[in-house]
Amino acid sequence: MAYQNFNMEHQWLPFTPNRSFKKDPRIFVAADGMYFTTHDGKQVIDGISSLWCVGAGHNRKPINEAIKKQLDTLDYATAFQASNDQAFKASEIIAAMAPGDLNKVLFCNSGSEAADTSLKVALAYHRARGEGHRNVFIGREKGYHGVGFGGMSVGGIAANRKVFGAALLPRVDHLRFIHDPVNHAYIHGAEPVWQEDILLELEQRILPLHDAGNVAAIIVEPVAGSAGWYLPPKGYLKRLREICDKHGILLIFDEVITGFGRLGANFAADYYGVVPDMLNFAKCVTNGIIPLGGVICSDRIYDAMMKANASSPEYAVEFFHGYTYSGHPVACAAAIATLELYKQENLFERAGQMGKVLGDAMHGNLKGLPNVIGIRSLGLAGAVELSSVAGAPGKRAYDIFMDCFHHGVLVRPAGENLVVCPPYIVEKEQIERIVNVLADAIRKNA
Ligand SMILES: Cc1ncc(COP(=O)(O)O)c(C=O)c1O
């Protein structure tokens, strides 16, 4: 199939340089296991689980079959004032996987919707308890929580603030970023140890500035994924939990990337031993096959919302929120089959084991190459950071990404980083191939 056969005039591609794409398109027409087939018949290895989604690899029959069966049984049913059996089953499985008292699942369709949903829960929860004045949110520099106005506001992505800044939520502040490029340039499966306490700023400046009693929630990605796989300092998440508890602030973990196995555990919350009040998920929950996201809320939040409504009539809606496709039966059937498949094949454990292989390969082969200024690996993901081309931020990473693609390897450019996060089924030889192609591309683009 030649790409000249496609009419590419009508799809406006998301987060993609549309003009250069058309000159050198990357079009997938099939996928199986670790590989894509392109329009011109080339095989490309999926080094990024198709944007962190495809944990079990492509074209997995048990998931496909579950979806087909569900289509023939209950294709769709309204999510409001009714529900479906698949949504109840999926939420039961997800709640059982989640740590602590995270037991109540609010479904949505994406990570962006999960971010906005969790912020709305925080406001509604505080209001329900008579603390409606708690309406300040705190995110973190370089945080990514999707593209909705709530998620962009608590996120710390400069490009969002440049273009959409005027329309972001007003009462938002940000923690400083968690990376020390001098002392923690190279981190292999460890927690960076900081001499200073980088959360002192939260306690001594940010909270007093807004009055801690006005703060509704703090939202962070446990590991900063989209920015380029930046790891939290040792003890950071525990301390964040303590600060939130001390001041009655809700803690939200955005686990859209870290959820469902990427760190070799169910969630980063398990990996770090810190239970948030809400945990956002999407991506790997359906192996990327059908959109599904959600927020797992603590019993405490749910109970408070129900209690606050105790005096209102039983027909009154307690939380004024939801999406037409919340808990879509086909998406939930996909989630049930996906989570079962992860379990049957011990894929989370495998992600942890292969993560060590990936980390070894990246640190062993990429350190010392031209322009490489850092490598960070944890779980089954790693990033190599390069110095930027003067006056052309992101160009080097983009050129390397393109070079890798032309050599049959899909990696992800993120700022000045190249990120590798393959499906959990990845084999050692495939990791070696991904890293070798990446190494060659780094050398060529020096
Ligand atoms: C941590 C995090 N939150 C939210 C999102 C947004 O998810 P979506 O693109 O499904 O809206 C992403 C996407 O990469 C993410 O990494």
Describe this structure in words.
This protein has 446 residues and is of the alpha/beta class. The strands form three sheets. Strands 4-11-10-9-8-5-6 form a seven-stranded mixed beta sheet, with helices on both faces. The longest helix has 20 residues. Helices cover 38% and strands 16% of the residues. The mean pLDDT is 97. The relative contact order is 0.16. Strand 12 and strand 13 form a beta hairpin. The protein has two domains: 153 residues, Aspartate Aminotransferase, domain 1, CATH 3.90.1150.10; 281 residues, Aspartate Aminotransferase, domain 2, CATH 3.40.640. Bound molecules: pyridoxal-5'-phosphate. Pyridoxal-5'-phosphate (PLP) binds next to helix 5.
